[in-house]
Helix-turn-helix domain-containing protein (Sneathiella chungangensis), 345 residues
Amino acid sequence: MSKNRKPLIVLLAAPETSASVLYGLYDVLQSVGAVYADMVVGAPGDELLDVRIASTDGKAFRCLGNIPVEPHTAVSQIDMPDAVIVCDMYTSIYDVPKGRHPREIAWLRKVHSDGALLTSVCSGSLMLAEAGLLDGHEATAHWAYRDMFQRHYPKVAFRNDSVLCLTAESDLIVTAGGVSAWHDLAVYLIARFCGYQHAIETAKVFLISGHSEGQSPYSVMTRPIETTDRQISDCQVWIADNYAVANPVEHMVGRSGLNARTFSRRFRSATGLSPIEYVQALRIEEAKQMLEIESYSVDDIGISVGYEDSASFRRLFKRSVGLSPAAYRKKFQHISQIAKPIEAV
């Protein structure tokens, strides 16, 4: 990068992009070097980054929520960005984005081979995966896309717990998790291109604190019912109401009429999890919901979802969620406190 120009950060957007991600990133990155000084000493400094919104053809469009977007440029008019942020590109967890965005993908491959840092927010990593740029790397996206990655992009090591995945940084790839993970990505990019102090100052301006605990506390078990394997789908429906019974896998095997080995193989093929992993995930999900809204003790909640041994329940919960049951309850307690005045109206 020439010392005579600002680092060029390109925000790649499309009609599937969230306005909050696109405009949030633009506002924060465009402010670096200018707004903090204005707030502290009353005199704005120089903007340190050249931030541009780009799309396939550079023409105006409307993103999610029917919000208008007027890109600065088309991707074909940008030869050498210092970094690209692929904004979220929403797609249903049932709708694999195969064959979409061919021009953007070709451009991403080119600028990456020329030395640009490629980053993504949330479902934006699906575009990087479709381009083959995540093959052989760890990467993250919103937790809801973990099954999609495992099924359709098996060469990518999906990090379900990660908010900001930096393990492929040396290969110029950085991915961020859910939609609000753009906060963490923005701070990272500011530190990389403008220095640590500017990252701290910008975080203070916008009250950005990051997600130090990762995605796990926010993750929810996705439960699509298998539609092509009748015996497995029947067991999924049954276990949803009977997760607390003793020996649940044995019950499902008996219900299916299959031998244990065949049942386990078909269950994993249909759900991506072994039967016992599925039961444990379901039990933990139910426990999380109870911790969020109920005042029962942790031990009573463990028993209610099928764990008589409270120590085992606590260990499994922390391994799955990244927080102890008590810490999880405390984390989400403030939401119920905010909601109570609303409910009382």
